[in-house]
Design brief:
heterodimer; A: Rossmann fold; 8-stranded mixed beta sheet; 5 helices; B: Beta-Lactamase; 5-stranded antiparallel beta sheet; 6 strands; binds guanosine-5'-triphosphate; binds magnesium ion
Chain lengths: 214, 132
């Protein structure tokens, strides 16, 4: 649930990085955290097990500056990708306004990517949301491994497996080197803020049309 | 799931309730958050407290506890309480979508905090859900 605070003149949106275990969600947040100046970010909160796997979520609040005089504040969350954390993933999705689906380019992770996208779809359904409607961007990660002679899925294969019908924007990335990280963030932020603003304007217009309680 | 809009007047009213009912009995910090983990309004001494992280963790904690309740066949745990050496923290659900977090020292009896929180819960919910 986005929050529009007219007192502090801020819009708060929640963007969730989703995807299978070890695909690089936490790596995205760490890169963003290290790359932007302290003025534009809050504390990075991580809840992880000892082996650096996300146990509950990571959270990085960032500030994107002003649009129409309103400060845009975005909370970036990651979910725990390991399959047995399904209940936890659903909790983290609560109130989501936009989604980055990070897919693992490793060929052997092909099924995991597909499973994770299906899991996302099912979890959204429980909040009456669907993938076709909510702002969504794909990130095909670990493209740097092309040069390491490790079998990777091609972009065409990834597109065909995950994005054939959704036709959401996608970015190739090597999150560990920061490649594609900000392109992904910019696109999803733009779409999410637009979506939240449109819903707000629409609800206002509707209230007026219904006799103007607002 | 819609978008929650709070106006300056609304914040003032919410703050007044927190001030007059909770800070007045000595609660050090009261924070009203939504279940996505956004801070809607905070009243009291925020010094050194990262309210953004606190709100995210409180919302997650509440969500996790609700799931545990379900596994046990309980309705819900509508109150959570943690006791520290000096500070105590109390979480109460306000309606379906909000959580009130209160932080207070041992000098204030838990019973009194509970009583006041119960009294304001209704008032806060009305303010949060009414249209103005
Ligand atoms: N080569 C390469 N490795 C990467 C890249 N992105 C992440 N990794 C590595 O992949 C491993 C898992 O990354 P994480 O960011 O922890 O994965 P995650 O998606 O948060 O995993 P969970 O928390 O279990 O869901 C780490 O060892 C990273 O260093 C990338 O672009 N290229
Ligand atoms: Mg992680």
């Amino acid at each position: 649930m986005a929050l529009i605070d007219l007192n502090r003149r801020e819009i708060h949106c929640k963007i969730v990085y989703y995807g299978p275990g070890r695909c690089g969600k936490t790596t995205n947040l760490f890169y963003i955290y290290n790359a932007i100046s302290e003025k534009y970010r809050g504390k990075l909160l991580t809840i992880e097990t000892r082996g650096e796997r996300t146990l509950f979520f990571d959270l990085l609040p960032i500030n994107l500056g002003k649009i129409h005089g309103l400060d845009i504040r975005i909370q970036l969350y990651t979910i725990p990708g390991q399959s047995h954390y399904r209940a936890t993933r659903k909790l983290v999705l609560k109130g989501v306004d936009g989604i980055v689906f990070v897919a693992d380019s490793l060929r052997k992770r092909r099924e995991k990517n597909i499973e994770s996208l299906l899991d996302l779809r099912n979890n959204l359904k429980e909040y009456n949301l669907n993938l076709e409607e909510i702002p969504l961007v794909f990130q095909y990660n670990k493209r740097d491994l092309v040069s390491a002679n490790i079998p990777l899925l091609t972009i065409e294969e990834l597109e065909n497996d995950l994005n054939r019908e959704l036709k959401a924007p996608y970015f190739e990335a090597a999150a560990i080197k920061g490649i594609g990280v900000f392109d992904t963030l910019k696109e999803i932020s733009k779409r999410t803020v637009k979506y939240v603003a449109r819903k707000y304007v629409f609800s206002q217009a509707q209230a007026k049309a219904e006799g103007g309680i607002i | 799931m819609g978008t929650m809009v709070v106006t300056a007047e609304k914040v003032k009213e919410l703050q007044r309730v927190l001030d007059s009912q909770l800070l007045a009995i000595g609660v050090s910090l009261a924070i009203l958050i939504d279940e996505a983990g956004n801070v809607i309004v905070a009243a009291g001494n925020e010094n050194g407290v990262d309210t953004t992280s606190l709100a995210a963790l409180a919302a997650a904690n509440f969500g996790a506890t609700a799931q545990i309740a379900k596994l046990l066949g309980e309705e819900d745990f509508s109150i959570l309480y943690h006791k520290g050496k000096r500070d105590n923290i109390h979480f109460t659900k306000i309606g379906m979508d909000f959580i009130l977090v209160t932080i207070f020292t041992d000098e204030i009896p838990l019973g009194l905090v509970r009583l006041r929180v119960n009294q304001v819960a209704h008032e806060l919910l009305n303010l949060l859900t009414e249209n103005d």
